[in-house]
Specification:
heterodimer; A: alpha/beta; 5 helices; 5 strands; 20% strand; B: five-stranded mixed beta sheet; 11 helices; 13 strands
Chain lengths: 141, 562
C-alpha cells in the first residue's frame, strides 16, 4: 500500500495536490491523507505509523506558526520517522532554509510549480523516485 | 612657565668668539714670529739687518707685555756689553762710559740728564758732536725705571760705530714730555717734547735733523734701529722668540682645548634637541629633551617639550576621534546589515505570499480548462475567487505599507469615539454573524492626529482581534483610551487565544505571523503597517504579556511635535 500524507496550510494547494495525485494513481492503489498544519500533521502521522509500511510525507515549508522543518524535527523527536520519507514542497524556499530542511531529515526539497502539467511532472517524478527507493530497499531484505 | 635661568648663550658665544679671535691672533703671531725667527737666524749670518729690525718692530707692536720684557733684557744686555757703569754726579743719573757697543763700535758716550738736556761727557778722546745724530733709539727699562736713549753719532759708520747712550729717569722724562714738542736748532741742546697724555717718551730722531722726538703713540714703545751690528740683539731676540713660540704654542693648545670644551658645552644640548626633533619627525611624539645648558637652549628645550606634549595630545584626540568614527561606521554597517536582512525577509515574504495564490489560480485555471462539466468547472473556479481576494488584499496592503513610508500625517483634532464608531460599523460585514462583541469608550478631549491613519490603525487591530478569535467562545473586543502625563494611551483588548511568546517576539516583522487559512484576508503585513504609522505619529506600540487574550497598547503624544 502506498501511503501519502499531505501537510499544507493552503487549502487550495492541498486540493490541487490531491487532484493531481488522484490522476497519477492510475490503479487507484494509493491512500492519500491530508493535514492543514504541523500539529494536525503530527497527529495524522502518528495514526499512520500504527500500521507498518512506508509513508511519503509531502509537507509545505511555510505554514502558520511553524514550518515544515519543525514538523520533520518533531516527527523525529517522536520516533515517527522509521518508515517515513519527508519531501518539502514549497512555494518559495531560500537556500539557507533548503539546507536546514535537508539537515533536519528531508529527502527532497521541491518548489511548487505553476500550472497543472508542471504539478503532474513534479509530483509524478517525486512518487517515482520514492517508489524506486522503496523497491531498492526491499530487495536486500 | 618660568624661563630657565643660566648663563646666556650670548655670553658663551662671545666667549667662544673671543677665544677664537685670541687664538687666531696667537696663530698669526706665531706664524710671524716663526718667520721672524728665520730672518733673525739669517741676520745672525750678517745678511738681513733691516728685516730683523722690521721683525722686531712687528713684535714690539704686537706683543705689549712681551715687549717690555724684551726691552728690559735688551737694555740689560746692552749695559753688560757696555761694560762698567759709573754714577754721574753731574746729571744724577746713571752714566755709563767706555766699553764697546757691538762688534764695530769703538766708544760709547753715555749721557744722563735730568733736565731734558742731552749732554755729553767726553771720555778720553774727542768725539763727534753728539747732537749730530744719525738715529736715536729709545727703550724704557722697567727694571730701573729709566729710559734708555741710544744715539748713533753722526760720525758713526759701519766698522766704527759710535753710540751715545743716555739713561734718563722716567720722572725727568715726564717733565720733558710736559714741555711739549720742540725742534731743536742745530748744535743746541735737545729738548724732548711729547703730548701730555703719553706716559712714556717715545720717538726717534730723524736722520738729518738735529734732534727731534716725535711721539706717535702707535709706535710706542719705539723703533729699534739696528744699523749697528745686531748679532747680540738678534741673539736676544731669537731667545725671546723661541720663548714666545713656546708660549704661543701652549696658548694655542689651551685655546683649542678651551674652544672644544666650550663648543661641547654649547652644542651638546643643541644636539639633544636635534635628535629629539628627528625622533619626532619619524613619528615618535613621546620624544622629550632634558632641560639643560644655556638659558636659550633650556628655553628651546622647554618650548620643544611643550610642542611635543601638544602634538601628542592632539594626536591622541585624533586617534580617539578616528576610533569613534570607526565605531560609528561599524555600528551603521551593522544596522544596515540588519536592515538589509529585514528587507530580504520582507521581499521573501512578499514573493512567497504572492506566489502561493498565483500557483493556485494558474493551476486551477488549467484544471477548469480541461473540464467540460460546467458544475465541475464552477467547483474549481470558486476557490480561485478566494485566492484572488488574497492576492488583491496583499497588493493593497503592500501599497499602503509603501505609502506609510513616504506619506506625511495630516493633523487635525480627532475624536476617537467617532473613528471607532466607523470601524465598528465596517466590522459588521466582516463578522458575518460570528458571536463577537466590539465595545469602546473613554473620556478624552479631541487631540491632534491624522484621522485617516488612526482609522487604519484601529481597523487593523480590531480585524486582527476578530481574525484570530477562536470559534469556540463568545469573543469580546474592547477598545479604550485615556490621556495621562501628556501621552494618549489607546488599549485594544480581546479574550482570544493570545499570542505565543515565539510569535510575539517578531510580531511586528512583516510576514512573521502566518495566516491560518489562505482564504482569510490576513496578509502578514497588518501589524507592521500599524507600527509604521504609529511611529510616524511619534508614538509607540507594544503587545505586553497578558494572562489571557491579547492586549495591544498604543501611546501617542497629545500634542504635535514640531
Amino acid at each position: 500500500m502506498t501511503r501519502i500524507l499531505i501537510v499544507d496550510d493552503d487549502k487550495l494547494h492541498r486540493f490541487i495536490m490531491r487532484r493531481v495525485l488522484d490522476e497519477l494513481d492510475a490503479k487507484k492503489q494509493w491512500k492519500c491523507h491530508e493535514a492543514d498544519g504541523v500539529d494536525s500533521g503530527l497527529g495524522a502521522l502518528r495514526d499512520l505509523a500504527k500500521s507498518s509500511g512506508p509513508i511519503l510525507v509531502i509537507c509545505d515549508y511555510v505554514m502558520s506558526g511553524q514550518t515544515g522543518v519543525d514538523f520533520i524535527r518533531l516527527a523525529h523527536e517522536e520516533g515517527l520517522e522509521q518508515e517515513v520519507t519527508f519531501v518539502l514542497f514549497t512555494s518559495l524556499v531560500q537556500t539557507a532554509d533548503h539546507k536546514k530542511a535537508l539537515d533536519a531529515g528531508a529527502r527532497l526539497v521541491v518548489n511548487k510549480p505553476l500550472g497543472l502539467d508542471a504539478f503532474h511532472d513534479a509530483l509524478g517524478s517525486m512518487i517515482e523516485a520514492w517508489q524506486k527507493h522503496q523497491s531498492e530497499r526491499a530487495i536486500p531484505a | 612657565m618660568s624661563r630657565p635661568l643660566g648663563p646666556s648663550i650670548r655670553v658663551q658665544v662671545i666667549a667662544a668668539l673671543l677665544v677664537l679671535v685670541i687664538s687666531t691672533v696667537a696663530i698669526i703671531t706665531a706664524v710671524f714670529m716663526s718667520a721672524g725667527y728665520d730672518q733673525i737666524e739669517q741676520n745672525m749670518e750678517g745678511q738681513l739687518e733691516h728685516s730683523a729690525a722690521a721683525t722686531a718692530r712687528n713684535v714690539h707692536l704686537q706683543m705689549d707685555a712681551a715687549e717690555r720684557a724684551t726691552k728690559a733684557v735688551a737694555v740689560q744686555i746692552t749695559q753688560d756689553q757696555l761694560g762698567h757703569a759709573e754714577q754721574d754726579e753731574h746729571f744724577g743719573a746713571a752714566v755709563l762710559r767706555s766699553g764697546v757697543l757691538g762688534a764695530g763700535a769703538r766708544a760709547v758716550y753715555l749721557v744722563s740728564t735730568d733736565e731734558g738736556q742731552l749732554a755729553h761727557r767726553p771720555p778720553g778722546e774727542a768725539l763727534p758732536a753728539p747732537n749730530i745724530v744719525k738715529s736715536v733709539s729709545v727703550w724704557f727699562d722697567d727694571r730701573t725705571g729709566h729710559f734708555v736713549i741710544c744715539e748713533e753719532a753722526a760720525g758713526s759708520s759701519p766698522g766704527n760705530r759710535i753710540y751715545v747712550v743716555a739713561y734718563m729717569h722716567r720722572s725727568a722724562m715726564e717733565g720733558i714730555l710736559a714741555a711739549g714738542l720742540e725742534v731743536l736748532p742745530h748744535g743746541s741742546s735737545v729738548s724732548l717734547g711729547i703730548g701730555k697724555e703719553w706716559p712714556y717718551m717715545v720717538g726717534r730722531l730723524a736722520p738729518g735733523e738735529n734732534l727731534a722726538f716725535t711721539a706717535p703713540v702707535d709706535r710706542w714703545p719705539l723703533e729699534v734701529k739696528t744699523e749697528h751690528d745686531g748679532s747680540e740683539m738678534a741673539a736676544v731676540q731669537a731667545r725671546f722668540l723661541t720663548s714666545s713660540l713656546r708660549t704661543s704654542g701652549l696658548l694655542i693648545l689651551g685655546v683649542v682645548f678651551a674652544g672644544m670644551l666650550l663648543a661641547g658645552v654649547i652644542t651638546r644640548p643643541v644636539r639633544e634637541v636635534q635628535s629629539a626633533v628627528r625622533k619626532m619627525a619619524s613619528g615618535d611624539l613621546q620624544s622629550r629633551v632634558r632641560v639643560v645648558g644655556a638659558r636659550e637652549i633650556r628655553a628651546l628645550a622647554t618650548d620643544f617639550n611643550d610642542m611635543a606634549s601638544t602634538l601628542e595630545e592632539d594626536r591622541s584626540k585624533l586617534v580617539r576621534l578616528t576610533d569613534g568614527l570607526e565605531g560609528l561606521v561599524m555600528e551603521r554597517t551593522r544596522e544596515l546589515a540588519v536592515e538589509h536582512q529585514k528587507m530580504e525577509a520582507f521581499f521573501y515574504g512578499v514573493s512567497h505570499d504572492i506566489k502561493s495564490p498565483v500557483i493556485s489560480i494558474v493551476t486551477l485555471l488549467d484544471m477548469a480548462m480541461r473540464e467540460e462539466d460546467p458544475e465541475k468547472i464552477r467547483e474549481i473556479l470558486q476557490p480561485i475567487q478566494g485566492a484572488s481576494t488574497q492576492l488583491r488584499s496583499l497588493i493593497s496592503q503592500l501599497l499602503e505599507f509603501a505609502q506609510a513610508g513616504s506619506e506625511v500625517p495630516k493633523y487635525e483634532m480627532v475624536r476617537l469615539e467617532e473613528i471607532m464608531g466607523q470601524v465598528r460599523d465596517e466590522m459588521l460585514g466582516i463578522l458575518e454573524g460570528r458571536p463577537i462583541t466590539i465595545t469602546f469608550g473613554g473620556r478624552m478631549a479631541p487631540f491632534p492626529c491624522d484621522p485617516s491613519w488612526m482609522h487604519r490603525i484601529l481597523a487593523n487591530l480590531v480585524v486582527n482581534a476578530v481574525h484570530y478569535m477562536p470559534d469556540d467562545r463568545e469573543g469580546r473586543v474592547h477598545i479604550r483610551w485615556y490621556r495621562r502625563a501628556g501621552r494618549i494611551t489607546i488599549l485594544v483588548e480581546d479574550n482570544g487565544a493570545g499570542i505565543a511568546d515565539d510569535v510575539r517576539k517578531n510580531i511586528f516583522v512583516p510576514f512573521s505571523r502566518k495566516r491560518r487559512d489562505p482564504n482569510e484576508s490576513g496578509t502578514g503585513l497588518g501589524l507592521s503597517l500599524v507600527r509604521r504609522m504609529v511611529e510616524k505619529l511619534g508614538g509607540t506600540i507594544e503587545i505586553p504579556v497578558t494572562a489571557m487574550g491579547t492586549l495591544v497598547r498604543i501611546q501617542l503624544p497629545s500634542e504635535v511635535e514640531e
